[in-house]
Amino acid sequence: MACFKNDKGDSILHLPAALGHHKLMESIISECPFFLLEPNWKDQIPLHVAARAGCLAVVKTLVTSIAYFSARLLSEEDRERFNVYVLKDTDGDTPLHAALKGRHLETALCLVDANNHGSFLENNDGISPLYMAVEAGGLALVKAMLNGLGTNVQFQIF
User: Fold this and answer.
1) What CATH number is attached to the domain comprising 7?
2) Dist CA 109 CA 142 (whole Å)
3) Average pLDDT for residues 96-101, to the nearest whole number?
4) Helices 129-136 and 139-146: crossing angle, nearest 10°?
5) In terms of C-beta density within 10 A (0-12 exposed, 13-18 middle, 19 or more buried), how is residue 91 classed?
6) pLDDT tens-digit profile of 39-52?
7) Which of the residues 21, 75, 112, 119 has an alpha carbon 20 to 30 A from that of 148?
8) Looking at the 3D structure of the chain, how many domains does it have?
9) Domain assignment of residue 155, yes or no
10) Which positions ≥6 away from 126 have C-beta within 8 Å?
11) Range of the domain at 28
12) pTM as predicted
């Protein structure tokens, strides 16, 4: 596997994901879909680096590919248990945190539309993507994150 990674552990899929090389990334995924879940030295999968770069087309392709291969390779129970949208890197960032750190609101909205479970997870600094979206002034994004909460939210009074 070493020949497919650089010195920082980025796979041959991390690089086009970070640089926005959409067609190259699609080609690699079609031949080697296992790279979708391959972490680098910071425990980032290609979805993290694409989200940080803010390339919406690349993130959409990764989201579609992850859904496609998950549906074919994992049982429904395993898909619920293994949620790539809540995978954290060494900084505790999910792909949604990564998108919002770069203020890529459209990319963040794409991730929330795919799965909003990561909207409320704190990173190592104790900051959630919801807080970051509010800070960025992303009204549509905040609405998407809060959509469906209804009365399921439990409030704590301190």
Assistant:
1) 1.25.40.20
2) 9
3) 98
4) 150
5) middle
6) 999 999 999 999 99
7) 75
8) 1
9) no
10) none
11) 2-147
12) 0.87
